[in-house]
Queue: 2 jobs
Job 1
Amino acid sequence: MAKVEDTQRSALERENPDDLRHYYYQMLLLRRFEERTSEMYVKAKIGGYCHLNLGEEATIVGLMAALTPDDYIFTNYREHGYIIARGVPPGPVMAELFGKETGVSGGRGGSMHLFDAKTHFMGGYAIVGGQVPLAVGAAYALKYQGKPGVVVAQMGDGTTNIGAFYESLNLAKLWNLPVLFFIVNNGYGMGTSVEMGSSEPDLWKKGASFRIHGERIDGTDVLAVRDACRRLRARAEQEGEPAILDVVSFRFRGHSVIDADRYRDPEFVRSGREKHDPVRNFAALLHDHDIVDDDWLKAMTDRVEKEVQEAIDFANASPDPRFEDMYVNMYATPVPNIPGPEDAIREVKINRGEL
Amino acid sequence: MAKVEDTQRSALERENPDDLRHYYYQMLLLRRFEERTSEMYVKAKIGGYCHLNLGEEATIVGLMAALTPDDYIFTNYREHGYIIARGVPPGPVMAELFGKETGVSGGRGGSMHLFDAKTHFMGGYAIVGGQVPLAVGAAYALKYQGKPGVVVAQMGDGTTNIGAFYESLNLAKLWNLPVLFFIVNNGYGMGTSVEMGSSEPDLWKKGASFRIHGERIDGTDVLAVRDACRRLRARAEQEGEPAILDVVSFRFRGHSVIDADRYRDPEFVRSGREKHDPVRNFAALLHDHDIVDDDWLKAMTDRVEKEVQEAIDFANASPDPRFEDMYVNMYATPVPNIPGPEDAIREVKINRGEL
Amino acid sequence: MPVITYRQALNDTLGEELARDPNVLLMGEEIGVFQGSYRITEGLLQEFGPKRVVDTPIAEEGFVGLAVGAAMLGLRPVVEIMTINFILVAIDQVVNHASKIHYMFGGQVRVPLVIRTPSGGTGQLAATHSQSFENWFAYCPGLKVVAPSTPYDAKGLLRAAIRDDDPVMFIESLALYDTKGEVPEDDDYTVPIGVAEVKRQGTDVTVVSYSRMTAVAMQVAQRLEGEGISVEVVDLRSLRPLDRPTIIASVKKTNRAVVIAEDWYSYGVTAEIAATIQDEAFDYLDAPVRRVAGLEVPLPYAKELSAASKPSANSLIYAIRKVLEGKKK
Amino acid sequence: MPVITYRQALNDTLGEELARDPNVLLMGEEIGVFQGSYRITEGLLQEFGPKRVVDTPIAEEGFVGLAVGAAMLGLRPVVEIMTINFILVAIDQVVNHASKIHYMFGGQVRVPLVIRTPSGGTGQLAATHSQSFENWFAYCPGLKVVAPSTPYDAKGLLRAAIRDDDPVMFIESLALYDTKGEVPEDDDYTVPIGVAEVKRQGTDVTVVSYSRMTAVAMQVAQRLEGEGISVEVVDLRSLRPLDRPTIIASVKKTNRAVVIAEDWYSYGVTAEIAATIQDEAFDYLDAPVRRVAGLEVPLPYAKELSAASKPSANSLIYAIRKVLEGKKK
Ligand SMILES: Cc1ncc(C[n+]2csc(CCOP(=O)(O)OP(=O)(O)O)c2C)c(N)n1
Ligand SMILES: Cc1ncc(C[n+]2csc(CCOP(=O)(O)OP(=O)(O)O)c2C)c(N)n1
Ligand SMILES: [Mg+2]
Ligand SMILES: [Mg+2]
C-alpha cells in the first residue's frame, strides 16, 4: 500500500477544496457516529449484533463519492456508515439501531438490516455472501430495463470464500452486468485472517477464474478509493464489465461491539490504528495543504458532535413500534387467512401474561 | 486438441503391449455395457434416470490406469464406466441398474448411486457438485491419517459453475490436500454448452482464483489421460498439490437415455461421433502398429459381448430386495424408536391393498 | 370447456403472462434451448426470445438470489427449479432473503418472485430425486406456498402467483403433468392464494390433501361411493397461508378426517393439518385424525420398494376404513 | 455432584472425546483462534493443536461436505455451525448427502458426523439470526436429531452423538449456555439417542418440550404447583427418532397436553407432537392438545416486538389453564 500522502499530494491540486472538506466532514461524521453507537450499545440502547465501520471511513466515503443517484448499493451487516454517506440523515439510522418506529427500517431490521429505498440503499444483510447474488440481480434488472447506473455489491474479505460469491462472479461476467464487487479487506473475518481463509490471499485476483478484472486499492485513502470506483464504475456502466475492487483497510476494533479482539496482538492493533487512521491522516493532509485550518477542524468536530447527539436524541424520543403492527408488512399483497392486528394484540397479551 | 494418432505414435513404442490391449478391452467393455444398458432401459428393466458414458471411454480407462489401489474415487451420476474400470465386475453393476439385491448398492441406489467399498469407489452422486466437497473430505482424511493415496473428484463441465466446486477448490489448496479435480468436459450440461454456462470456458483455468494448477487434455486419448493423471496424481500425493484436469471428450448421445438431444445439430453429433470415437480410434491405432490383429479384435468383441450378456443374465436372475428389508441400513448404530421389519411388512401390505 | 393437460395449463399461463407484462421473465436451467426438462416451457424461448426466457448455468443459489435482487428492482421473475430436491443449494436465498426482505426492511421493497418446482416423485428416482420439501417452505412466514392439483387450479394459481407482490413457492408434481382437466379459454381468472377448496362434497369423512394426493383422493372417493361411503375432499391448494376455516368446517360436518400427503410422515404437512383439526374441531371428532404419508426412508431405487414407500390409493382407503370403524351406517 | 454450566458440559465433553479418540476432530468457523463465537470450544485449540481443532473459512457447504467425506473414511468430525441460521447454505450436504449415504449405498459406508449448532434466539438478533430449523432436520430419515435441555443431557447426548456412527444434528440454545445443573464427574455415562425423559412427574397436564422450552416448562411447573396444578414435563431430548411411547404414556395418565417449542407455530415441531397425541391417545384426551410456539413473523429487531414474538412462561401458563378449563378439582 502506498502512503496516503504520496498518492494524494499531486492529485490534491486538481481537487475542488469543497469536495475535500465534504469528504472529511463525512468521514468524521461516520467516525463519531460509530463511537457513539458503541456507547449506546454498552448502555443497552442497542441490542443484537452490532458491527462498526471504525477505520473504514475512507473506504465508504470514497465509494459514495464515486456513485451517482442512479446507482444501487447492497452491503453486509457492517453498514451504518454506508447508508449515512449515501445521504440518509443519522437520526433515522440511530433510531433503527434503537429499534424505533422512526428507524430507516421501521425498527424491524436493526443494526444489521438498514434500508433506504429513496437513496437506493438496498439493505444490509447478515448471512455472509447473501447480498452478493442480490446485487447481481439488481444489475440484471438495470440492464433488462435499459436503465443507467451500476450496482455495488459490498462485502468483507472473509466473504470471498463462500460459494454465493463465486456463482455471482460467473453470472455477472457471463451476462455482462454492471456490478462492482467491492471487497472491504480489513484483514479479518471475525478472528480469521485473510491468509487463514483464502488460498489466494490477493483478493483482487479472485476474478481470475471468471475473466473478471480486479484491482487492489488503499482503503484508507479516500481519493484513491473514489478514483478507482469512478473508473471501474464507468466501465461497468458503459461496457457491462463487472470488476473486483479489493479495498484494504484496518479494522480498529473487534469484529463486533462485543468482541474483545483477543486474537490480535495489541501492539499490532495499536500501531495499525496509529498508521492507518483515515480520518486523522486526511485531516493532516488537508491541513498541510492549507485546505483547512485548526478552526475549521474544530468547527467540524463540534458540528459532527452535535449532529450525532441530535441523532441520539431523535432516536431516544422516537416511539417503539406498536404491538398491533406485529404483522404489518408480512405480505405486500394481502391474501385471506393471514393474521391481523387483533391477532397480534391477543398473542402479545398472552405472551406478557395480560390474558 | 491434438489428434490421437500424433500424440500416441511415438509414445506407443515405450508401452507394454499387454497394457494397451487391456485398455482396449476395458474401453470396449464400457462401450458395450452402455449400449446394452440403453437397451435394457427401453425394455423397462432399468428405471429412474440413466446417464451413459458413451464417448467417454478413454477418459475413464485412462484415469483408472493411473490410479493405485490406495486411491479413492467420487463421481457424479454418469458413473457406470468408472466402477467397472475400477475393477467391479459388470454383473453386480447391471444388477444395481435393475434394482436387485445383488447390485453393488443392494438395489437401493440405482444407476446414479453405484458404490463399492472394496475398490474405494465411493459413490455416484446426483446433486450437481455434491460429490466435490465429499472428495475433498476424503483427501482430508488421508492426510489426517497419514495414509498414501489421492482422491479423484470426478465431475462434468456444467458442475464447474456451482458454489460447492469453488468452495472445494479453496479448501483443497488452503489445506494442501491430495485431490484431483477431474472435469469430464463433454461440452454440455444437459443442453447448456460450456460457453453458455461459464464466463471462463477454458475450464482448466478455473483454478486461477485459488492458485490451483490446471491442464487441458484430450479425453479421447487414453494414454494422454493416463499420463496426465499419473503426473498430477504424484504431485498431489507427494506435495499435497491439488490440480484440475479438464478432460475434453464428446458426448455420443443425449444427456440421459430419455433425452432426444434435439438441441445439438445432428450433423455435429454425427461427425463428432465419427471423429472422436475413442474406442474405434484406439483399435485402429493398435492395429496400425501391429499390436493387435483382426482376429484379436474379433475375439475381444465376442468376449465383451459375452461378459455383458452374462451381466444381464446375472441381473435378471437376481432377487429383488425384500419388503421387510425396507428399513435395513436406515441407521448404522441402532437406537430405540425406529421402525423394523414388522413395520415394513405392515406398511407395505397397507400400501398394496393387502390389509 | 376445453380439456387440457396440467403441463399445457402451465405452459399457456407462462406464455400469457410473458405477453401481458414486459417485466415478467422466466429463468432456470434448461428452460430455453432444451425446452424445459419436463417441457413446461416448451416453445417459449422461440416465441419470446432469450431476454424473456433465460437459460442459466447450474448455479441455483446464484440465480435464485439474482432473481430476488431483480425482483427488488421491479422485475417479476418466474424461476424454474428443475426439481425441488435441487433447491436445497439455494434455500438460503429463499428463506433467509426472499421471505424476509419485505418485512425486515419495514415494507420499503417488494419481492414479486415465483419459484416453480415439481415436488415428490413416483418413478424410481432414488433418494435424492424423490423428496418433498414444501412443508419446509410452508413453515416460513413471508413466503406463500401453493400446490395446485388440477389444470384449472394450476392456471389460476400460477396467474395469481405471478401477479402477487410476494415470493411464492409454486409446487408442481411430475406425476400430474400429463393429467387432464377443463380450463376455460379467454377467461382471465385467478385462483386466490390462501384459500382451500372442497373439491367433492361428502358426509362420512373428510380427506384433506393437495397436489397429486388430491387426484388420488378424488379417485378413492369415487371408488368408495360404490360402497356407500361418502368422502368429502378438501384440496388445500395453498399450504401457506393455510385455510384452516375450510378444513374445520368440513370436519365439523363429517366428524372424521384423514390427511394425506406424499412427503415423509413425521414432521410433514399432515402433522400440521391433523394438529389443527384436533385443536379446532376437538368436540366434533368421532375418531382420531389419521395421517397417510410416505415411509420414512431415503427413497430406495428398487422398483417395488420405491413404489411401496410412497402413499397409494390403498393406503388412503385403509385409513378411511379405520376412521370409519365403529360408525353406524 | 458438581454443578456446571451447559457451556462447560459441552466444552468438557469435546475435550474428553478429543482425548479419547484420535479420529475425533473439531471443525468450524472461529472455534480455534477466536476460541468459539460462544466459547464452547474455548481452550481446545491450545490443548489439542490445529490438527484436532480446525478453523475453517466461511464456506459452510464446503466444510460440511468435507466433514461428511472425511467421516466416510473413518474420521469422526464434530462440526460447529455458528448458529442454525447459517446451515441453510450447507443444508444440501446434510440432507441430500450425509443423511442418505449409508442407506442409499446399501450400508457399505458410515457417516459418523456430529453437527453442533445453537437454534432459536432470545436477544434482538433480528430476522436472519433467530430461527429454529430443527423441525426440518427431524423430518429427514437418515439423520438423528437431539436437543438437550440440561448440562447433564448436553454431556450425555454429545458423548452419545460423537460415538454414534450416524450423522447427528446436535441442537443447542444460546440462552441455555449459561444455565447450570448437576453433572457427575468420572462417569462415562451417555444419554441414549431416541429416548425422551419425564423430567418432572405430574397428574393434571403433560407439557411436552425440548431444549430451552423444557427449562421454561420446569419453571412453570414449579410455579403452578403453588396453585395446586400438577404439571408433568416430558423432555423430548431427541426429535428424531421421536420417543412416541413416552409421550403417549404420560398423556394417558394426565389426559391433557400442551406442547411448547420456540419455533414458528405452523408446520413446526409442536404440530408433529400434537398430531401424534391425538392419534395415539385420542380416547384419553379430555381437551384438545394445545400448541405454544413462536409468532409467525420474520423476527423483528425492536426489543419488545422481538420478545413478544417468542413463546414465554406466560404463554405456556395460558395454554395450561386453557386445557384445564372445565376440569373438576
Ligand atoms: C453464512 C454465514 N456464516 C457465518 C456467519 C457468521 N459471521 C458473521 S460475520 C462473519 C465474518 C465475516 O467477515 P468479512 O466478510 O471479512 O466481513 P467483516 O466482518 O470483516 O466486515 C461471520 C463468520 C454468517 N453471518 N453467515
Ligand atoms: C444442484 C442440481 N441442479 C440441477 C440438477 C439437474 N442436472 C442433473 S445433471 C445436470 C447437468 C450436469 O452437466 P455436467 O456437469 O456437464 O455433467 P454431464 O451430465 O455432462 O456428465 C443437471 C443440470 C442437479 N442434479 N443438481
Ligand atoms: Mg473482514
Ligand atoms: Mg457435461
Note: Chain B touches chain A through 23 residues (CB under 8 Å).
Job 2
Amino acid sequence: MNKFDRKQMAARVAQDIPEGAYVNLGIGLPTLVADYLPKGREIILHSENGVLGIGPRPAKGEEDADLINAGKEPVTLLTGGAFFHHADSFGMIRGRHLDFCVLGAFQVSAAGDLANWHTGAPEAIPAVGGAMDLAVGAKQVLVMMEHLTREGQSKLVERCSYPLTAARCVNRVYTDLAVIDVTPEGFCVIEMVEGLDLETLQRLSGVPLKYQPAARAA
Amino acid sequence: MNKFDRKQMAARVAQDIPEGAYVNLGIGLPTLVADYLPKGREIILHSENGVLGIGPRPAKGEEDADLINAGKEPVTLLTGGAFFHHADSFGMIRGRHLDFCVLGAFQVSAAGDLANWHTGAPEAIPAVGGAMDLAVGAKQVLVMMEHLTREGQSKLVERCSYPLTAARCVNRVYTDLAVIDVTPEGFCVIEMVEGLDLETLQRLSGVPLKYQPAARAA
Amino acid sequence: MINKIFATAQTALADVPDGATVMISGFGGAGMPSELIDGLIAQGATDLTVVNNNAGNGDSGLAALIAAGRVRKILCSFPRQVDSWHFDRLYRAGKLELELVPQGTLAERIRAAGAGVGGFFTPTAFGTRLAEGKETRNIDGRDYVLEYPIHADYALIKADRADRWGNLVYRKTARNFAPVMAAAARCTVVQVRETVELGALDPESIVTPGIFVQRVVRLTPMRKAA
Amino acid sequence: MINKIFATAQTALADVPDGATVMISGFGGAGMPSELIDGLIAQGATDLTVVNNNAGNGDSGLAALIAAGRVRKILCSFPRQVDSWHFDRLYRAGKLELELVPQGTLAERIRAAGAGVGGFFTPTAFGTRLAEGKETRNIDGRDYVLEYPIHADYALIKADRADRWGNLVYRKTARNFAPVMAAAARCTVVQVRETVELGALDPESIVTPGIFVQRVVRLTPMRKAA
C-alpha cells in the first residue's frame, strides 16, 4: 500500500477547505496545508497571535520579526488581511467564527475526543498554547496525524489514554492511511490510500471502523 | 444666603478635577462642568458612546452627526482624542479606569447610596443608560444636584426611597447650598455657600451632618 | 472570489424570518443603519426581538420599525427619550415587551455572545431592581451579578467603508455598538457609505475584520438620521 | 500639561517592588519589551510573578529575567519550547512555580481584569485536567469552566508609537497581548520605537487609548529580540 507522505496528507486536507473559509492551521504538520490550498480559491487563514489573511512565507531576507504565525515562523499578510489583539483573536476562536481548524493529535477517540497537548508523562513540562481553545471553538475540527505511533499503536482509540484537549470536538481525521469521519456511531472511513483494504485498516486501527465512501462531503 | 446657580455649581465641581484626570460627565447638569474646567489644566473627558478627549461644542453649522456625547449633543474632539467601541468604553468604566464621574441624583444616602435613574413611579417608563455602570465603576463618584426638591424635601437622606442606582458609591456631593463628603461616619459638610450656617443647613437637610472644612481634599 | 457585497438592501435582507432577533447598531442616530431598517420594514418581517441602545427616536429608523408594529420585544438601556413616542405608545398599550439592561451590561452581553463567553459576573446593577432574581456572588470583596450573552440571528449595522471581504472601518462615535454586534449575530448585514478595493483599508486600522461580516450594502443616506 | 513620557527605563521602572505581579507583552519575541525587561533586571526587583504567553526564549528578554532568578511564579500558556532552557532548568529544580493557562483563557482573564469583569464562563478546557477543581456549569447546552481575572501591578509592554497622552499604536502581530495587558495593570509602562506629537496618531486608529497607559519610554532595540 502507498502511505500518504506529509505533503500528500496536507494536499488531501486542503481539498476539503472551500472558498471563503476562515481557517486556523495548527503548529507543525497542519501548517503545511497552506502550501496546498488550490490556487484561485480564496481562503482566509487565521493565526491566534492576532492576524487574519496570512500569506505565503516571505522570501529569504524579507522576514519581519513582527509578522509571525502561531508557530513563530515568519509569514506575510495577504491584501485584505487585518491585525487585532489576543483577546479579540481568541474571541473569534471561542465564539465559533472559524469555519475550520486543523490540528495535530496524539489520539482521537471514537467519540471525537482529542488528545494533543500532553503525553501524560509525569516529568514532561506541560504546554497547551491555543489548542484547547481551537478544539472547542472552531465549527469543524480537522485532525491531521500519522495513523500509527512509531511503536505501531493506533492513534484512533476507543478512549484516549493521554490527557484530553477537549471532549467530542473532532469532526474528521486525516491520516497517512485514510480519511475518517467521527460520527454519532463512531469512526467511519470515507477514503483509504491506494492498495489498502478495510480489513487491514481495521486490524491496524484496533477500534471499530465503519466504511461509507459516499459519506464524503467535501 | 446666596444659593449657587447651575453655573456656580459646575464651576465648583470643576475646581476639584485635577490635571490629567479622566472624567465622565453625566447627561444634563454635569455636562456643564466641561465649560468651567480651568484653562491650562489638561483634563480628558470620556463619553460612554466611545470617545476620550471631548472638546468644546462645535460652532453653529459645524456639527457632525457622527460626533456626539452621551447626551446626544454634538461635540468636538480634542487633539489626542480617540474613538473605540461600546464594550471597550464600558470596560474603561467598569474596570475602574475613570478617575471621576459626575452624576446628577434624585437622592444620596448617608452611606453613599445613589438613586438617579428611576423615580419609582409605577407608570414611568424606566431608562437607565450608563448610570449604573458609571456609579460602580468610576474611582470617584461626584454628585451634582439641587439640595432640595421643588417641594422642599432634602435630597440627602438616611436611606434612599427611590430605586437605587448603586449602593455605597458616592464620594462627594455638590449642591446649590454646600459641598458634602460621604464618609464612613455619614455626611460631612466641607463647604457652605456664603451666608449659610450649619444649623440652617442641618435643618433643611433632615439628616445628620458633620462639619469639617479642613477635610476638603481638592 | 470572496465577495460579500450585495447590490441592494432588499437582497441583503431577503431571508430575515418572522420572529428573528435583530441587533441594530447606533446610539441615537449616530451609527444607526436607517436605510437597512427601511429595507427591513419593506421586507415585512415581524414579531421581531430588537437589541439596540435606545427604542427609537422621532419617526424614522428604529422608531419607524416600531411604529410599523414589527417589534415584539426590545432589549435596550434607554428607551424613554423626548422623541420616543412610538415606543412609549406601544409599551404603554402593552404591545411591546421591554428588557431594560444597563448600557455597559448590554454592550458586554453582546460582546460575550461574539466571544463565546457563556456568562460573566459584572458589578453593575448589584443591589438594584435590575438585578432582582439574578444570581449574585461576592468575588474578592466586590459584589457581582451574573449576566448571560445576547445572541442574534441578524445584526444590522452601519459602517463608513468596507471591502469585499467585509473588513470595516467606522466614523467617529458612529462606531459605538457595531463592532460587538457584528460578532454576536449569525448573519451581519452592514450598510456603508463607500465600498473600497481590497487592500485600501489599513490592516492596522481595520476595526471589524471581515470574519464577523456576511453582507455589505452601499447605501447613500436619503435623509439626515434622526 | 499631561506628559507620560519618561526619559529612561530606569526612571520608568524605579518603583517596581519585590513581589510584584508583572505582565509582559509579546508572543515569543514579537512585541516583547526586551529593553524594559533589561531595565527591570538592572533595577533588581525580585520574587516576581510574571504573566506572559511563554516562559522565555533563548537568553534574552524574559528568559534573562528568569535566568537572573527574579521570577517566583509564571502564568503562561506555552512554557516549553526548544529554547526555553532557563525556565526548564529552574522549573525542574522546583525553583519556579507554573500556572498553565490555555492561551485564550489567559487573554480573556487579562481582558476581564481590565474590563472590571469578576469572572466568566469559558468552554475552553472543560473536561480536561486544566479544569480540575474548577467550578463548571452547563449553560444552554454547552459546558463551561468558571475563570477569574488576572490583575497586575505593572504591565511592561511594547508598542510602535506613542504620544504624550500615552495613546498607542502597534506593529503587525507584535500587538498580541499588549492592549489587554495595558488595561489590566495598575501601572502600564510602554517601550516604543518612536514618540510622536499629540495629534499625529489618527483617533480612529489608536489601539490603546492613553487612559490605560501611565509611562512611555522611547527605547531603541539594541539587538534583535530573541
Note: The helical segments of chain A are 6-15, 86-94, 131-137, 198-205.
